[in-house]
Specification:
The complex is a heterodimer. By secondary structure, chain A is mainly α. Chain A contains 14 helices and no strands. Chain A is globular. Chain B is of the alpha/beta class. Helices cover about 40% and strands about 20% of the residues of chain B. Chain B has ten helices and 14 strands. Chain B has helices at about 1-30, 60-75, 95-105, 120-130, 155-170, 185-200, 220-235, 245-255, 270-280, 290-305; strands at about 50-55, 80-85, 110, 135, 150, 175-180, 210-215, 235-240, 265-270, 285-290, 320, 325-330, 335, 340-345. In chain B, the strands form four sheets. Chain B has a six-stranded parallel β-sheet, with helices on both faces. Chain B is elongated. Classes of the chains: A mainly alpha, B alpha/beta. At the A-B interface, helix 2, helix 3, helix 13 and helix 14 of A face helix 1, helix 3 and helix 4 of B.
Chain lengths: ~350, ~350
């Protein structure tokens, strides 16, 4: 696996030897090994393991029908999880995403009912999402307010606006071809057609985070905002655009929600923000910022989605379902800590031993 | 030694991998025990019919009574298995994934109380395409996506009995308010519409003024708070109508512990078991409801008749609903269960639901 330059195999290596040059010190894992044992990879393994288990243990799970229904269910979470990953990596949070989606949905309903052209309706709704994101961005990036406080406020504010816009009505008569398209599948694969767009969004955010200076800046901001600004990263500007992106993607999720369920309502997508954050954390993103990856998050979203769908297919009660999801999250957070505690203990033991050998 | 070092590097990760998969697998195996797998993809033969009830939400006392009747009906109608699945929250889209899962599980009859008439439509369409029969009950889905709708009583009757009760209790004049379930609940909104029309058109109610409509989302806490808010916002309020069992119980609880007890009338649709203390302590004079168990019972038999091809949901079709006797399909695929009952201090002890 890894290349280590062991001086002798019998004598224990001193923990740090200042007499040797640094280059000859054993290095950590590199290349493929590093990727294959990373925290994100573990989420992927868990997903694969669970898929395998479900395919064997749950009758009728392994079929294209599952693919379709499952993906249709997770698309909103998958979409919003992308900007959310970037935001959490910078050490911030956005709790207003579900309300933005609801606001978009309400606006769509009212505009469509007023007889506006459908494409104009979609564009306006998307712009409303962007505006909502800008509002968050202004308060957080420009005025420098804490994102948790701001987005808790806008969570309520945007949901309230949605209620003001559409009230207790539901608008349902969207154009049939459009709503049919949103639940259509690609041939016999069972993959929803909409997934093409979702994949584009995922690729966009994946490339942005992992292959651009902007993305590297986000990681730096997650470690330390002061340090990041000292090395020339435009902290405020980056944050502002992240929230705009988050608003835009939330609007897309709201549009998808409205057309998939063919019903524009003020309470659409309520509670989704927590589902998204849970999936992002399960995908290996650190809530303190500075750590995480898009592939890991995608695996996290799919893991929760698959678990939900599989348990539903097995007719397990939803009460059990949320309990399982909660346990899973706790496990994923606690397990690495246990691991590192064990590591710590072994390390101190080694240090002690090397000292006692030196003494003898 | 080096080997040892490498191991410790992965310890944390390995532990979390094991934990995650173990948790998932454990949870699943633990839960899978009680469900009993139903094999076979082929459409069920005569004696192997499966029925699934999807209520608006689980853990709702009213729904539990309806589903109890449904289970009983399913057994008597000859279904091989009956299941109850549903969301924990009564939101529009929450039922869709359950309908999807049932479609995939090859269920023959899906009985659903729609949280939103249109949101479940596409999913129900897919279920029908796969050969399932759809029975809506309690709260209708869009008529295009179900075969029949089992309704407690004629919607107008439910509305009129509530306006009549409130009018009697406030002496025919004054401000009233409505505390409903969710803002989009199909059945509640229909009743409210009829109530508003009746209040506007019937000269006997000309002095009654409907000042507010609030929504407790069939959530006990929220309903309680809404009731509290109503009294603060409208100090002259003389009566509240709550056409939902969760709402009326929460409002009753608030009124019985407040200064408004006995001064502000409360009526609507409630469960005798939940409302008994409020009837006894004078908070509530009279309220109404039908026997919810019959609703589920008739729905199960309607599902069986549809699956057997005895009825199609066309007007004039008839089927036998077990011990309740014959029921007729009205215009628009509507099946009426029976008239509502009015409960008061005299008769509330005779009922147990």
């Amino acid at each position: 696996m890894s290349e280590t330059t062991s001086p002798t195999s019998t004598a224990p290596t001193p923990v740090a030897d200042s007499t040797k040059p640094l280059a000859s010190e054993p290095k950590g894992r590199t290349g493929a090994a590093r990727i294959l044992t990373s925290r994100d990879a573990i989420t992927v393994y868990a997903l694969l393991a669970f898929l395998l288990y479900a395919a064997i243990a749950i009758p009728r799970f392994a079929s294209p029908v599952t693919t379709g229904f499952l993906l249709l269910d997770v698309i909103p979470v998958l979409l919003i999880a992308m900007p959310m990953t970037l935001i959490i990596i910078t050490g911030e949070i956005d709790l207003s995403v579900a309300s933005t989606a609801g606001l978009t949905s309400a606006l769509m309903g009212v505009l469509w009912a007023s007889g506006m052209d459908i494409w104009l309706v979609l564009t306006t709704s998307l712009l409303a999402g962007v505006a909502a994101g800008m509002f968050n961005g202004l308060l957080i990036a420009v005025l420098g307010l804490p994102s948790l406080a701001v987005t808790i406020g806008t969570l309520a504010l945007f949901r309230g606006l949605a209620l003001v816009i559409i009230g207790d009505n539901a608008v349902a008569n969207f154009p049939k071809p459009l709503t049919a398209f949103f639940t259509s599948k690609l041939g016999a694969t069972g993959i929803p057609t909409v997934m093409i767009g979702v994949v584009l969004v995922m690729v966009f955010f994946g490339v942005l985070l992992h292959f651009t200076p902007f993305g590297r800046g986000l990681f730096a901001m997650g470690y330390s905002k002061e340090a990041a600004s000292f090395v020339g990263i435009k902290v405020a500007r980056s944050k502002f655009w992240l929230y705009v992106g988050s608003g835009a993607v939330s609007a897309l999720a709201g549009i998808y929600w409205t057309l998939r369920y063919t019903s524009a309502r003020s309470d659409n997508a309520s509670g989704l923000e927590l589902a998204v954050i849970a999936a992002v954390l399960l995908g290996g993103v650190s809530i303190f910022g500075g750590k995480g990856s898009i592939p890991g998050v995608i695996a996290g979203v799919l893991l929760i989605g698959t678990l939900n769908y599989a348990l539903r297919l097995a007719r397990v009660s939803d009460v059990v379902l949320i309990t399982v999801t909660g346990l899973l999250l706790i496990f994923s957070v606690v397990a690495p800590s246990i691991g590192s505690a064990v590591k710590e203990w072994q390390h101190t033991r080694r240090v002690r031993r090397s000292f006692s050998q030196k003494a003898s | 030694m080096m080997l040892n070092r490498k191991n410790t590097g992965t310890t944390g990760r390995l532990a979390s991998l094991i934990a995650i998969t173990a948790a998932a697998a454990l949870a699943l195996t633990a839960c899978n025990g009680g469900t009993g797998s139903t094999g076979g993809n082929s459409p069920a033969a005569g004696g192997d019919l499966k029925i699934t009830f999807i209520p608006k939400q689980l853990n709702n006392p009213y729904t539990d009574v309806v589903l109890g009747g449904g289970k009983k009906g399913a057994q008597e109608a000859g279904f091989a298995s009956s299941q109850i699945v549903g969301p924990l929250e009564a939101s529009a889209s929450s039922q869709v994934s359950f309908v999807n899962a049932e479609t995939q599980a090859g269920t023959n009859v899906i009985v659903i109380a729609a949280n939103d008439p249109d949101a479940v439509c596409t999913a129900l369409g897919e279920a029908r395409a796969a050969g399932a029969k759809i029975v809506a009950f309690d709260s209708d889905a869009n008529p295009d996506c179900r075969d029949v709708f089992i309704s407690q009583v004629v919607a107008k009757e439910v509305a009129l009995i509530q306006t009549k009760l409130i009018s009697e209790q406030i002496g025919g004049s004054g401000e009233i308010a409505i505390l409903s379930a969710t803002a989009n609940a199909t059945n509640q909104n229909e009743w409210i519409k009829f109530m508003e029309e009746e209040l506007a058109s019937n000269p006997a109610y000309k002095d009654i003024k409907l000042v507010a409509k609030v929504y407790g989302d069939d959530n006990d806490t929220k309903s309680f708070q809404e009731a509290q808010g109503l009294m603060q916002a409208h100090p002259n309020l003389k009566g509240i109508i709550s056409p939902t069992t969760v709402g009326i119980a929460a409002t009753g609880r608030y009124l019985s512990t407040s200064a408004y007890k006995g001064k502000v009338a409360l009526t609507g649709l409630g469960l005798p078991n939940e409302m008994r203390p409020f009837v006894k302590d004078g908070t509530v004079k009279e309220f109404a409801l039908w026997d919810p168990a019959q609703l589920g019972y008739v729905a199960a038999f309607a599902g069986k008749a549809l699956q057997d091809g005895k009825i199609t949901g066309a007007e004039g079709d008839t089927f036998t609903a077990g011990e309740l006797g014959e029921r007729k399909v009205e215009k628009g695929g509507l099946v009426i269960v029976g008239p509502p009952t009015v409960f008061n201090a005299e008769n509330v002890d005779k009922y147990n639901f």
